[in-house]
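User: Fold this; tokens only.

Assistant: Input:
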Amino acid sequence: MERNQLFLSYVKIGIRATQEAVKGFLLKAKGVARPKDTLGLTWLYMLGSIAWLITLGTAAMNMRTYLVYNSNSPAVGPVYYTALTIHGWSAMLGLVPDAALAVILYSMYKSDLSVVHVRAVTSLFWIANISLALALFGGPDMGWYMYPPLAITDNAAFQAFRLYHGAVMGLAYLFLAFNSAAGAAASLILVVDSYLTKKKDQKINIFAAYGVAFALVIGVTLPALTAAELWYVLAVWLPSIVKVNPLLWVILFWFYGHPVVYYVPFPLFGALYYYIPIYARRPLFSEKWARLNIFLLAIGSMLIWVHHLQTFPLPTDLRAWITVSTLVLASGSGLTVLNLGLTILTGNGYNYKDPLGMTFLIALIGFIIGGVQALPLPINLINGVVHNTYYVVGHFHLVIWTLILVGFTGVFLDLLKASRPNLEYGRKSRNLMLAGILLWTIPFVGVGYTMTVAGYLGLLRRVIAYPPMFTDYMQLMSFLAEIGIPGLVLTISTAIAEYVKAGTPVISKVTSFSPSQPPSFMIEGNKGGINMGRKVNFRLNTGDKIGKS
């Protein structure tokens, strides 16, 4: 009988603890969905980025399955191209703006800047992300770049959307316009709020300087995409009145479409300038270079979009300008590499054994190896050969997998520590995170170079029916990707486990324990843990009374 009472007491303790955990989770979820400060907004955009990363990753692995399966039927084609478009839209319209704003918000937090209009930025997050999700549910099938005329075609031979037709297709483009307009508005609000909360006569740190500068770039260039999408809305709803001029539409698109590839990398440059000196154990080699470079990168990124039109019949003098201006922008990136490289080489021993130190070092190295491959692309003779091949795919995916995803992971790891000051990664956890970073990076660098070689040999991108000579290349890409994916999962999951552990309540007192007297526990919760900082005193006697203090 006494044992049964003891067992029931333990069950009731478990039930109460579970109830407290659920309450804590719901409070936490509400706090994340409706943040009240800059750090909370950072979490919201960070989690949005991770959600889109999972979506695009799932689409990518499905695409790779179709690419390497030998017994594909013609019916697989539409599924493959829909997955391809979902992958692209999730990346460029979901992950990129959310990740960029997450990094910018965190840079503001690290420089004691605040978001004044928290509710507005929160609302814009939900408008942007829900709108994109609604557009994706239609099964888009024309590539993330949405070139006309296929992007507004809806007939028996081709449908721009698998599920949305007629006027509903125009509604889908209206959702996309909401997505891009909300991203632009949120970026401009961050610029204004940074100005409003900057302390007089105090220079913001280099991290925030890059973050705020490129929030302005986002706010200026993203409206061009909004205009292009609204043009499609009118063309679908008023086809007899509104016609789409393909060249003008492409100009609008690429005014946004080139800077968008810098939305995340350039704010991450600010992170590299901020963190690498910490782990190199010395000040930045030249902060003056770093701050002057902002103007070169920000202005240059908005002027060289024409190099995406190399296959168009452009005038010779314009082609010359494309090459020169692109290389000038590349010199700004080179200056970043030189500045950070000298910081590391003249430092007091770089601390690569710390997971944050390792992530930012790999982000820098990844940008170098991915960026070098881009240098030949603006050269007219070379561009015509590799313009639409896996060479280009290899280049930008190397930058994505290293600078963007590994650098983003570094910011995420530091965000965990900022959100829970008592968090200290243990030795085993640090080793697991380091192993995960390397397990991710090495195989995906291999994937990037495999793509590059295959593209140099002539493998066209966005094509499911490719020559048999490229089968081994495709198989190797998929094999290396399968090896690398668990690496990032290992790093992030280990960090999250340490974060949860640091905030989990512990039994700080056992007041009684015997078969004849059911136990009484004092459970203390850290902020963010099960009970959000309250102490819960479980005193279970025969009457099962629970008191809270």
